[in-house]
Amino acid sequence: MKKKAILALEDGTYFLGYSFGAEGETQGELVFNTSMTGYQEILTDPSYRGQIVVMTYTQIGNYGVNEEDLESGKVQVNGFVVKEVFFRYSNWRATKSLDEYLKENGVVGIAGIDTRALVKKIREHGVIRGVISTNNITPEEAVKKARQVPDISELDLIQEVSTRESYLWKQGEWRLSEGYIETEGEKPTVAVVDFGVKFNILRRLASEGAKVVVVPPEEAFDFAKKERPDALFLSNGPGDPQRVVEGIRLVREFAGKIPILGICLGCQIVGLALGGRTYKLKFGHHGGNHPVKDLKTGKVEITAQNHNFAIDPDSLPSEVEITHINLLDETVEGIRHKELPIFAVQYHPENSPGPHDSYYLFKAFVDMAKRAGQ
Ligand SMILES: NC(=O)CC[C@H](N)C(=O)O
């Protein structure tokens, strides 16, 4: 017999389903992800801290989990909601089931949910707070708990996911039957400010030949002053960008001194540091098929995305140019400073999971850093 579980929302709605992964109770903001594959990369993306992820794709778990498709050392989502979960899996790289993996990581999942109805609700209401419980509580109790979930903008989530100490990253590209290739990047040195960086960002930078040093946010300022890296990279990460004051200060200090690239949270930080404002989107962008237009070339890239906040285009000063927009809702997807070597994208050029259209951005950045380091 499958163990029963409940998913309750702050608006009073609840869904009954069954438990997989860890048993117990969890809470967070619900967001939906439209990727058809890549649940392991999604689960381990540190930007999902504080959030319960609902998959729109209906069958999850059928290829198990493996030792390689990790975006960080563990499962980061607060909870996982699916229509149908597969306890039996089949894939040559798989080492265990999704159920075992979530159990090991202590993360609560719920299956048997009408995810189409749930996604419609999130689209109408916007991001919504919720609770998953396997504890046999009444729907009324569960709804009450959902209403007590704190707003994500009140939480300090970065400290839960960023590194405590600096380290050198050596993993490069993945090759069939070899796995990830070790690289010893020499130059340029890129200091990655870790707000919850995804491994594939580090792999992309290393693959382009950079020496990648990952630094905790609170040490980044002193590190950049002392070690003089050739470029600064601001990573993705969870929570509200307005809370990341050390990041904003860092960009203001080093703008024009060394090249800077920001991705996702890093992009929002760059926007704030250059004088813009950020706001919360109704239900964010989470998926692998968002069309983004490069306004200079007119080219459209199909991108992977995971964000709830965005830069307000009207808030940007005249020295900052909007370089990319999202073709679904015309929100800002990329900015650059017109004179200084600073650029940033809201989407995820490292993909993972997602299409590889935007890999060229890492080369452009490493080339910029090479020139700066000469
Ligand atoms: N992937 C990210 O870096 C997310 C950035 C930010 N936490 C947001 O939700 O918008």
Task: Give keywords.
10-stranded mixed β-sheet; 2 domains; alpha/beta; Glucose Oxidase, domain 1; Rossmann fold; 24% helix
Can you characterise this structure?
The chain is α/β, with parallel strands linked by helices and 374 residues long. The protein has two domains: 4-150, Carbamoyl-phosphate synthase small subunit, N-terminal domain (Glucose Oxidase, domain 1, 3-Layer(bba) Sandwich); 158-373, Class I glutamine amidotransferase (GATase) domain (Rossmann fold). Helices cover 24% and strands 32% of the residues. The strands form four sheets. A ten-stranded mixed beta sheet has the order 10-14-13-15-16-21-20-19-17-18, sandwiched between helices. Strand 20 and strand 21 form a beta hairpin. Helix 7 (217-227) runs parallel beside helix 8 (245-254) and helix 8 packs across helix 9 (265-273). It is globular. The site of glutamine has 11 residues, from strand 18.
Question: How would you concisely characterize the structure shown here?
Answer:
The protein is of the alpha/beta class and 374 residues long.
Helix content: 10-25%
Distance from N terminus to C terminus (CA atoms, Å) equals 66 Å
Query: What is the residue-averaged pLDDT?
Result: 96
- From the spread of the alpha carbons, the general shape counts as globular
Classified in CATH, the superfamily of the largest domain is Class I glutamine amidotransferase (GATase) domain
Largest sheet: 10 strands, mixed
Q: Give the strand order, joined by hyphens, for the main sheet.
A: 10-14-13-15-16-21-20-19-17-18
As residue ranges, the low-confidence spans are: none
**CATH fold call of the largest domain:** Rossmann fold
What's the total number of strands? 21
Number of helices: 10
**Which architecture name of the largest domain does CATH use?**
3-Layer(aba) Sandwich
Work out the strand percent: 25-35%
- The CATH class assignment of the largest domain is Alpha Beta
The helix-and-strand class reads: alpha/beta
Radius of gyration: 20 Å
- List the ions, cofactors and other small molecules found in this model: glutamine
Please, how many domains?
Answer: 2
